[in-house]
Amino acid sequence: MAAGSFVIVLHGHLPWVLEHGRWPHGEEWLFEAAAETWLPLLATVRDIRQAGAAPTMAIGLTPILLEQLSSPAFQDRFARWLRGRQKRALADAAEFGGDVTLVALATRWAEHFVDLAVQFDAIDRDIPGAFAALWQQGAIEIMGSAATHAFLPLLRTDAACRAQVRIGLETSERILGRRPTGFWLPECAYRPGGPWKPPVLDRGLVDRQGLEGILAGEGVAWTVLDEHLLAGARTRAVLGENGPIPVGWDQAGHEPERAWRSPLEVHRVGEVSVLARHRQLSEQVWSARIGYPGDGRYLEFHKKHGQDGLRYWRVTSARADLGRKERYEPEAVAGAVYSHAQHFATMVRSMLQTHQDAHGRKGVLVAPFDAELFGHWWHEGPAWLRDVLLTLGADAEVDLATPSDVLASADKQVEIPAGSWGDGGDDRVWLEDKTRWIWEVLHRAEHRMGVVVRDLNWRGSSTVRKVLVQAARELLLMQASDWPFVVTTKGAPDYGFKRVSGHASRFDRLCDLAQDLDRGGEPTETQKAQLREAELADSAFADVDLALFG
């Protein structure tokens, strides 16, 4: 009999990059994610099913990622990009000449890109549709997220949070054919209800709704948060057939058998069930110090052959600089993948058994990861995932589950503090001295959007409405958590500055135009061109409900 359930969650997201640069920052990110993560994950699911097993897991596809993957522009450009990668590999093979090892690796890359192109055409170039079909068949569960992956706790108003949540869920439903009941809070960032002081522009305390209330109001049943938020939880109620029974804030000390605050338990915050990321288990995969991807046999991510080139080297050693990396040996990888998958499966089994022994209850062990870790950052990640799911799927001591499968086990309600899964467990990665100006721009834009939606006659003028819908798109895209993140982490600070500034400038020009039109003015040729440019560059979200911003 199983000691408990194991839930793996892969969160997939990329900001809007179509029409916003190519390389090194821009559409290349999207092409690499499709080739190195999304097509390989679809192949992994196929392989697991062909082995007679169930690929039980939850996969997150953020609305803004879905918008891009379903775009005809992406589908055409990605197919051409794959052909270009194949040609690059063949050119490398010719350049390597008599170096048999490198020629073999280059030829292997060329064949790989041909296989990806065949796979892409076989699903009619529709990656979201392929995942939606798997969801419809019950093979996986798909979760939704905020429209553009905004860091919700730092948005100025509840209305802005609600707009991100509702537009996100409606977009997922439009593209996937079903409305998700699970929701990935961007950056696992949560804020409870109560008085809140905005961190910029010197505003006083405002009363805010807890994010769980906004999620529940949109039909969300579950989300994932970091383990440390449960550790700081206050006990609120025991959940039973007759409803919640209130308890004191220190009930955990009086009722250890219920395993309050354990990351292996499903809790409820308000009406939303919360699954907690188990840090110790998860770090076996993502940790730079002990994570499996650091094994010397795996493909080295950072070293490429030439600018924007292909990878021909292995990790070798975490301490080795790029000049000392040795050549990749594909034949050595299968053993590493199998060994690491068995180690992980043993940890899952042991943790669930320990929880059951301690509390007499079946636990729920949750391991959420950024999906791009599998295939993009860690080339062998999809193969490892396949072996883990096949191993645990055949293990009588572990039930593989999706989040929706385990919600009925929630028998306790708590209140939790604010926090995220970022460095420090708070908002410091997204709000610090170098990014404070971003939040000032965002808060001013939020306020202005509310004013123009309230004051302008967009319901009576299709032209004013058209302009304000595009302004709303610019606001949503401006709110992406990616921009302050790439500034703080120095991953692409110039690109982050450029994207926020660009969307902000377009937003203000569009609001100015809407106000002129509302007063009976006519757009100039320059203004018409600016609107066309904005609609071409930022075409996400087909029909935005402006009332959400009022």
Question: Mind explaining what this structure looks like?
Answer:
With 550 residues, the protein is of the alpha/beta class. The protein folds into two domains: 4-70 and 126-421, Glycoside hydrolase 38, N terminal domain (7-stranded beta/alpha barrel, Alpha-Beta Barrel), CATH 3.20.110.10; 430-549, Up-down Bundle (immunoglobulin/albumin-binding domain-like). The chain is 47% helix and 12% strand. The chain has helices at residues 27-50, 63-69, 72-96, 100-122, 127-136, 158-176, 211-217, 227-231, 251-254, 279-286, 333-359, 381-393, 403-406, 436-455, 462-478, 482-488, 493-518, 525-537; strands spanning 4-12, 58-61, 141-145, 182-184, 194-196, 206-208, 222-226, 234-240, 243-246, 267-269, 272-277, 363-370, 398-400, 412-415. The strands form three sheets. Strands 1, 2, 3, 4, 7, 10, 11, 12 and 13 form a nine-stranded mixed beta sheet that branches. The chain has a three-stranded antiparallel beta sheet with strand order 9-8-14, with no helix packed on it. The mean pLDDT is 96.
In short:
The protein has about 550 residues and is of the alpha/beta class. The protein has helices at about 25-50, 65-70, 70-95, 100-120, 125-135, 160-175, 210-215, 225-230, 250-255, 280-285, 335-360, 380-395, 405, 435-455, 460-480, 480-490, 495-520, 525-535; strands at about 5-10, 60, 140-145, 180-185, 195, 205-210, 220-225, 235-240, 245, 265-270, 270-275, 365-370, 400, 410-415. The N and C termini lie far apart (about 55 Å).
